[in-house]
Design a protein that fits this description.
The protein has about 290 residues and is mainly beta. It has two helices and 17 strands. This is 50S ribosomal protein L2.
Length: about 290
Amino acid sequence: MKKYKPTSAGRRGMTVIEYKKKLSSTSSKPHKALVKGKAATGGRNSQGRTTMWYRGAGNKRKYREIDFRFNKKEVPAKIESIEYDPFRTGFIALALYQDGERRYILVPQNMKVGDTFTVSETAKIKTGNRLPLGKIPVGTFVYAVELKPGAGARIARAAGNYAEVVAQDAGYTQVRLPSTEIRKVIATAWASIGEVSNEENRLVSIGKAGRARHMGLRPKTRGTAKNAVDHPHGGGEGVQPRGHKRARTAQGRPTGKGQKSRRPKKYSNKMIVSRRKLGPRMTSKK
């Protein structure tokens, strides 16, 4: 982690990850066969409606095709290079399989160029190896966890994240997620051993608005500063209280301050063993 001298207001407190030190022994250019163009959406869906607010512009990026399904089983692979991916916070690795095929994967911590991994039901419990949840011992840290067998990794994919296997019970594996929620996942779903790389990402301080704009993040407008037609908190002369017991999103759904926003009849509620714990900023003072 690099800290700048306070030569300006923007530089004061700014921190960046020193990618040259972390990726110094790897290739600087991505593997051309696994790279394609990707148009920026600006937070809009296929109908042109804004579904994700405060997104747009930013630097142009090339998309690396990442293998989240890991459907090449029983074939050992070797890490050729560890690279930066502009579309995700964790680092990626170019894996060369014994049959000559190359694929990009999400690389775990402490894995370096030259290391090997295997996707197999009989694989050893070693960082990078991938096997079914039912065959992973209790207490093991995993990442890139599937929710349905063969559907591809869905859980614990961000930088520094991991899930922990806490129990094996009647064909299901209980997994503690990064949010502290404990959830049942079918034991035939697959997961990789280890933790996602680039754990220092959570320490990054953007520092100035211009850097956020380069990342495609636009300025956020407070709900209270909007018109009543645009937000439930909007309207009124000058500064007004929100006028509701609970904070709401622009669409009127509850948000913030530890409120439950999950649908009461969501199909996957039966898979949750323990709800996530509230953070220190969300709990009420006694």
